[in-house]
Write a structure and sequence with these properties.
The chain has 380 residues and is of the alpha/beta class. The chain is built from 13 helices and 13 strands.
Length: 380
């Protein structure tokens, strides 16, 4: 696969969100100039109907996302006319080998694999794949433990020899950073849910509009809305335990109805509202993201004495994020300041007496250098 540029349709991959086939949304994205990907979900009837609609509404190239619970038969997928096949985490890659060995005719030319860590990425290299999607823990559905931007850097540094797309936490301001880091492009899913062309139930629409990111939780490796389905309503589940962490989730229980299904939404779910407020519809979003990708960068912003560094009173325009059990030592803060950054003391796990000791120690070690402290219960 040729690596996408920021003007290439493949630089923006857009998937129908929540592991559900939304043909109207995906067709609109195709027409707007990005490479759309229809998630086939777990219901073969719904996915087959959506595939028919998609091919009726657009004649532009499109992709299909296949997950471990996909009920559509391999022959239908092979003969769908899709130009790209995206395999979700835990999808059996040996089935891809079998599909290729049967016939090359009709098979999508490009196959991307979503991975949650470097081990999965290296395992994918043993199969006929042409690209990798870095699926960070910020996103919804089946994810790993590593956040999007850390995972992306880890995969890029591993020199895998394949183009990499970034998924999870991609907003209007971070898209440029992803491209500057060396990604071939970005992947959007939940961000699309509140755009004009999206089709989701009213209850889920309301939940997304209220999100700030804290409503997402991880259950058995799945990132879902913290809201639980009503007892007896989740498919294949007759009752729900009182402790959310003990619940068993399977792909058939994922969907768009928060009262009957687990909705795969990550910490980046709040971006759906941001996208809707900023752009409103698919055409404006694609145009806005491409403008962000093409925006000229100023390397001087990261150099010594940049405007941000001057505002912070530091040598470098870098702020160290507060980290519990790491940056809760005055000596650590002093080391960060000595290297030119803005240190922050983490107080979340400290008692009142421990906090006083750390703050006093930081004050003594840092003297007149700028520094900060963070405690989750403190507000301005």
């Amino acid at each position: 696969m040729r690596i996408a540029s920021d003007t290439d349709p493949r630089a923006i991959l857009a998937i129908s969100p929540f592991a559900s086939p939304d043909a109207r949304l995906i067709a609109s994205i195709c027409e707007a100039g990005a490479l759309c990907v229809l998630d086939l979900g777990a219901d073969p009837t719904a996915s087959q109907s959506a595939l028919v609609d998609l091919k009726r509404w657009t004649d532009r190239p499109f992709g299909l996302r296949v997950g471990p619970a996909c009920g559509l038969d391999p022959t239908t997928i092979r003969d769908s006319g899709a130009s790209l096949l995206l395999l979700a985490p835990q999808t059996d890659l040996t089935s891809l080998d079998s599909l290729i060995s049967q016939s090359r005719q009709g098979l999508p030319a490009d196959v991307l694999v979503e991975v949650r860590d470097l081990t999965e990425a290296r395992a994918a290299l043993n199969h006929p794949v042409s690209g990798i999607v870095s699926r960070g823990s910020d996103s919804g559905g089946l994810t790993g433990d590593t956040s999007s931007f850390v995972l992306l850097q880890e995969l890029l540094n591993a020199d895998l020899g394949l183009p990499i797309w970034a998924a999870g936490g991609i907003g209007p301001h971070t898209v440029r950073a992803v491209m500057a880091a060396g990604a071939a492009g970005i992947l959007l899913d939940t961000q699309l849910a509140l755009l004009e062309e999206a089709t989701i139930p009213t209850a889920l629409r309301s939940a997304l509009r209220r999100m700030d990111g804290s409503e997402s939780t991880s259950v058995d490796g799945y990132r879902v809305l913290r809201q639980r389905p009503k007892i007896g309503h989740a498919p294949g589940c007759t009752s729900l335990p009182q402790r959310l962490s003990a619940e068993q989730i399977n792909p058939q229980q994922l969907g768009v109805d928060p009262e009957r299904q687990w909705v795969p939404v990550g910490q980046d779910g709040f971006l759906a509202r941001r996208y809707a407020e900023r752009w409103g519809d698919v055409t404006a979003m694609i145009s806005g993201l491409r403008a962000a990708m093409n925006a000229p960068s100023d390397p001087s912003l990261l150099l010594e004495a940049s405007p941000l560094a001057q505002d912070m009173g530091t040598r470098l325009p870098l702020a160290q994020g507060p980290m519990t059990r790491v940056s809760d030592q005055p000596e650590f803060a002093a080391s960060v300041a000595a290297e030119g950054g803005l240190p922050f003391i983490a107080l979340a796990m400290s008692s009142a007496e421990q906090s006083r000791t750390m703050l006093k120690g930081a004050q003594q070690l840092l003297a007149d250098q700028p520094w900060g402290g963070r405690h989750p219960r403190l507000r301005r």
